[in-house]
Design brief:
By secondary structure, the protein is of the alpha/beta class. The chain contains six helices and five strands; from the N terminus they run H-E-H-E-H-E-H-H-H-E-E. The protein is 48% helix and 14% strand.
Length: 143
């Protein structure tokens, strides 16, 4: 159930970002997920993406199975340096500091605008959220 709320939250965040940039064309978002081989996990993520696309036909989700967690952070940082940054990545909470130092992540706080957004964010266990916050900002969302 938490994953359903995660994707609904992502919908809100992506919609907010789209409205900020006033994009008229369909939007493609890339989603890096740390898994090295196919199987049940990739099918699950593919299904999440398909469900999200059905609810949001103007947004195409491109899952990228990026290997181990170490492979994933390396690929994400390489993509950032090549001006092809992933829209979202599932990474370790400790990677937050590297991402901040490399200017490879933006905080979620400006996108959390409505009481519903705030309630959604408060629905996560506080300890999980603490792993996603530093300097008074929220840099990640537990998956």
């Amino acid at each position: 159930m938490k994953n359903v709320w995660f994707w609904r939250g992502v919908t809100g965040l992506v919609a907010a970002a789209i409205s900020v940039f006033a994009v008229a064309q369909p939007v493609e978002i890339s989603f890096y997920y740390p898994v090295a081989v196919g199987g049940p996990i990739t099918k699950l993520i593919d299904n999440f993406a398909a469900d999200f696309e059905k609810e949001n036909p103007s947004i195409k989700v491109r899952p990228v199975y990026s290997g181990t967690y170490q492979d994933s952070i390396t690929k994400a940082l390489t993509a950032v340096k090549g001006n092809d940054a992933p829209t979202m990545s599932v990474l370790l909470s400790t990677d937050m500091y590297t991402l901040i130092d490399e200017d490879a992540v933006v905080p979620f706080d400006p996108l959390i605008r409505t009481p519903e957004d705030q309630a959604w964010l408060k629905g996560f266990y506080p300890a999980f959220m603490e792993n996603s916050q530093t300097g008074g900002k929220t840099w990640g969302i537990p998956f």
